[in-house]
């Protein structure tokens, strides 16, 4: 060896300098990927800083520590993840596939630390590296791959499936841009793109080898197969490729780690090549751009017409990839015949968004796997179940027939055949009832022919469920009445739930600590055990601690509100909160009318004293929803007037929290004293925010709508502020003709409140900007805001009176938490597993060699 060569020899590097202290001692060899101690985590973070992040120490930012810790945490799920998957492949356990166009997962790091039970170790490990865990957690960009309740429900269900050790896969779309980011400018909502992948996503693993082709457009033709049988071939106009990205879903305190598979669209090389060969480079690139558009952006709900065709393509794209994946695993990995599909897989349709799956599975079984129609249909119906999330007729999904046939010609043929056979059955059951046949058809005739996706999902599933008791009853008596009469046994209810890991343990550590200390830790996986709090309701010391926890949470939210809006809040005030998507049926404007009534009372009567309250709103409006956007403007206009009026702001403040999402929701629910669930009775299928508030000790003011009915039942009517018309009464008022003007005549305060808006009190004299809202309330409001105003305002007076009696309020707050056990998603998932899916626990053993 020459001297030069020897000088250039590479040294074995020493570990990155380890500071003295417990967590910074080197971890035992082999533990950096799996060790659960603070020392091992610390070594793992160092390891990833060096080998995955690759920045010199001077350039390291908290963001880099976030990524390094996330990778270290993902490592700790990896063996559990592979063992879980291997086990259900080997043991042939039944697997739930949750098909959903939306998964609103929220930040992952904190939740995974909780579920792996290593938050304290992580805190210590970071401290040894001079970092603060909370600051690192705040670096995470959340994947906003959902609009609201439905997407968040899917995420809560994945958490519970893993925690209950049920094998499962969530299937959805890896949107490049999630729900838009909301900014408020001059009181108006402004939408900004949500580029959540800009800094990479440490949680997902790309699986380029698990990809499927998806056809689109074109036509079908008949051909004779080798056996001489007539078959159908789909000759597509385009072909896309779906690439899978997998994210681990770790259960709490168990080894089960399930999978969320999200599909991302790509161009198919061979397709583009054709153009390359003819020298048309730009055409080839165009093709690629169009293909990748398919998973580009999440569509907001309540967006009439926007991107309809692309939305259908999105749905078909992820459904086709998912079903092909399931069949591939079934045939090649598990090695079972197709006839065994319903014994091995339970496929849940999260609303109608994935309901094209019914036709797609039929196509795959018949065209690609040569099954007979009857065999395929039997398999299909025994495999699928469908959850409905809405009764609003305008929200029931239909596709114009022409567009549908152009896009999915083979599926339209299959749907016609399903319909033909189904309507024969209807005619046999109800002879001569042509009207019924027309109503039940999968093809609607109103306003141009269309495919009715709710009918397709209902006919193609063995079970149909609503998401709260009232909702499920209304389904049977309204939108799916005819189907209920035909197949009563198909219909059931599973009331929604939320995960206590994220919405209590993670977001309310103060309350978690108090609960652990008072009743032990078992409640986190058995939420009914919160009932053990009841003996403490009259214990003054416990009440005091309960209040201290709430107050600290309010101070934490106040700090966030100040940082984001500049508004200062006093944590001793009542925090009255409504956070959810902005929609007329949810009636954010009813809450505003109450604020204006109080404002007016204070102005008219300067000596008046009322308990101080801050009204907090948060939520996004669909970009094309004209009235919803004006509701946001109204809230901000009233906020500005109220907050800057010294006569009023001693008692009232109003906040519109911009960009409500899962991350800031963690600060909101634990800080609320009062939860507003004030939708028109019969319109909110369930609501799940209502449950998050209750679990965190807020009292609810609400109508008898959705899950409020059950919340009131569980809490006890004396611990719930009920107001408003019931669903029956709403229908009766509408039948008799709703005349908003009559309420104005009878209620001078209501008239004065509307007059204040109309004359521009909150808009610097501008009488135009909010006119559409006022006109709407007075002339054509299907949601009966004025009809419920008086009852609401009077009930709010009862809220004030109760709030004044601090001990009574605290007692009611404790009882709400103590009785919230039913609203755990663990209960909901156990019901799905037992009543619908037949999926059972499969504990995973880690003490073995995997590879
Ligand atoms: C449909 C077609 C085209 C584009 C978008 C959509 C679309 C997307 C999302 C339609 C609806 C949604 C979301 C609906 C939703 O969140 N529903 C809520 O589901 C919750 C969980 O069951 C319930 O608690 C709520 O009551 C219900 O409103």
Number of helices: 34
Average the pLDDT over all residues and give the rounded result.
Answer: 95
| Ions and ligands | ligand 26Q
In terms of DSSP E residues, the strand content is: 5-15%
Q: How many individual β-strands? A: 22
Q: Uncertain runs with pLDDT below 50, 5 residues or more?
A: none
Major sheet details: 9 strands, mixed
- CATH class descriptor of one domain: Alpha Beta
Question: What is the correct CATH architecture of one domain?
Answer: 3-Layer(aba) Sandwich
So what's the overall shape? Answer: globular
CATH H-level superfamily of one domain:
Glycogen Phosphorylase B
Q: Which secondary-structure class do the elements indicate?
A: alpha/beta
Distance between the termini: 40 Å
Keywords: Carbohydrate metabolism, Glycogen metabolism, Glycosyltransferase, Pyridoxal phosphate, Transferase
Enzyme class: transferase
Family: Belongs to the glycogen phosphorylase family.
GO molecular function, one term: glycogen phosphorylase activity
């Amino acid at each position: 060896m020459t001297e030069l060569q020897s000088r250039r020899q590479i040294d074995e590097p020493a570990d990155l300098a380890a500071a003295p202290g417990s967590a910074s001692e080197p971890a035992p060899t082999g533990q950096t990927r799996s060790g659960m101690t603070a020392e091992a985590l610390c070594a793992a973070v160092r390891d990833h800083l060096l080998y995955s992040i690759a920045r010199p120490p001077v350039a390291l930012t908290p963001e880099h520590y976030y990524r390094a810790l996330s990778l270290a945490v993902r490592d700790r799920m990896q063996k559990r993840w592979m063992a879980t998957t291997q086990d259900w492949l080997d043991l042939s356990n039944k697997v739930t596939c949750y098909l959903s166009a939306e998964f609103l997962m929220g930040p992952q790091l904190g939740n995974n630390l909780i579920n792996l039970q290593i938050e304290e170790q992580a805190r210590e490990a970071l401290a040894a590296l001079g970092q603060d865990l909370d600051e690192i957690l705040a670096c995470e960009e959340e994947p906003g791959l959902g609009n609201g309740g439905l997407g968040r429900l899917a995420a809560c269900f994945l958490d519970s499936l893993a925690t209950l050790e049920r094998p499962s896969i969530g299937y959805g779309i890896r949107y490049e841009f999630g729900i838009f980011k909301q900014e408020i400018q001059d009181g108006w909502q402004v939408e900004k793109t949500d580029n959540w992948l800009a800094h990479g996503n440490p949680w997902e693993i790309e699986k380029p080898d698990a990809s499927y082709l998806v056809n689109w457009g074109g036509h079908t033709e008949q051909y004779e197969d080798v056996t001489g049988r007539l078959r159908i071939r789909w000759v597509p106009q385009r072909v896309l490729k779906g690439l899978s990205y997998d994210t681990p879903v770790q259960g709490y305190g168990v080894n089960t780690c399930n999978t969320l598979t999200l599909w991302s669209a790509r161009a198919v090389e061979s397709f583009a090549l054709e153009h390359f060969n003819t020298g048309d480079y730009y055409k080839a690139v165009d093709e690629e751009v169009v293909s990748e558009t398919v998973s580009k952006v999440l569509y907001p709900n309540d967006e009439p017409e926007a991107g309809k065709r692309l939305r259908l393509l999105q749905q078909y794209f992820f459904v086709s990839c998912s079903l092909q994946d399931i069949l591939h695993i079934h045939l090649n990995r598990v090695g079972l015949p197709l006839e065994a599909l319903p014994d091995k897989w339970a496929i849940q349709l999260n609303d109608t968004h994935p309901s094209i799956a019914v036709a797609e599975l039929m196509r795959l079984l018949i065209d690609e796997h040569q099954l007979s129609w009857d065999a395929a249909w039997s398999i299909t119906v025994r495999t699928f179940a469908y959850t409905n999330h809405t009764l609003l007729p305008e929200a029931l999904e239909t596709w114009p027939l022409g567009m549908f046939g152009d896009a999915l010609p083979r599926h339209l043929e299959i749907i016609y055949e399903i319909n033909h056979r189904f309507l024969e059955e209807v005619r046999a059951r109800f002879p001569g009832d042509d009207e019924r046949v027309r109503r039940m058809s999968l093809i609607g005739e109103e306003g141009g022919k269309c495919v009715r996706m709710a009918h397709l999902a209902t006919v193609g599933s063995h079970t149909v469920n609503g998401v709260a008791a009232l909702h499920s009853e209304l389904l049977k008596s309204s939108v799916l009445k005819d189907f209920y009469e035909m197949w009563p046994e198909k219909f059931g209810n599973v009331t929604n739930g939320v995960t206590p890991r994220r919405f209590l343990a993670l977001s309310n550590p103060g309350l978690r600590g108090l609960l652990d200390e008072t009743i032990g830790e078992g409640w986190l996986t058995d939420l009914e055990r919160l009932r053990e709090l009841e003996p403490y309701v009259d214990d003054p010391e416990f009440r005091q601690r309960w209040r201290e926890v709430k107050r600290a949470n309010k101070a934490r939210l106040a700090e966030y509100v100040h940082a984001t809006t500049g508004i200062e809040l006093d944590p001793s005030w009542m925090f009255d909160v409504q956070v959810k998507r902005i929609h007329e049926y949810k009636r954010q404007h009813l809450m505003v009318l109450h604020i204006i009534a109080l404002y007016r009372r204070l102005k008219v009567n300067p000596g008046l004293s009322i308990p101080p309250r801050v009204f907090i709103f948060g939520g996004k409006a669909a970009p094309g929803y004209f009235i919803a956007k004006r509701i946001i403007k109204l809230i901000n206009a009233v906020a500005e007037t109220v907050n800057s009026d010294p006569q009023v702001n001693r008692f009232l403040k109003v906040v519109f929290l911009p960009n409500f999402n899962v991350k800031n929701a963690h600060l909101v629910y634990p800080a609320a004293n009062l939860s507003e669930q004030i939708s028109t009775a019969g319109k909110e299928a369930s609501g799940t925010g209502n449950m998050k508030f209750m679990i965190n000790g807020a009292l609810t003011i609400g109508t008898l709508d959705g899950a409020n009915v059950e919340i009131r039942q569980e809490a006890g009517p004396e611990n719930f502020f009920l107001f408003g018309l019931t669903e029956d009464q709403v229908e009766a008022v509408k039948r008799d003709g709703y005349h908003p003007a009559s309420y104005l005549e009878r209620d001078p305060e209501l008239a004065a409140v509307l007059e204040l808006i109309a004359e521009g009190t909150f808009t610097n004299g501008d009488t135009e900007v909010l006119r559409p809202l006022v006109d709407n309330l007075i002339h054509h409001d299907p949601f009966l805001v004025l009809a419920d105003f008086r009852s609401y305002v009077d009930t709010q007076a009862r809220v004030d009176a109760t709030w004044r009696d601090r001990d009574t309020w605290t007692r009611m707050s404790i009882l709400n938490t103590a009785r919230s056990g039913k609203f755990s998603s663990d209960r909901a998932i156990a019901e799905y597993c037992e009543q619908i899916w037949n999926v059972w626990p499969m504990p995973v053993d880690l003490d073995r060699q995997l590879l």
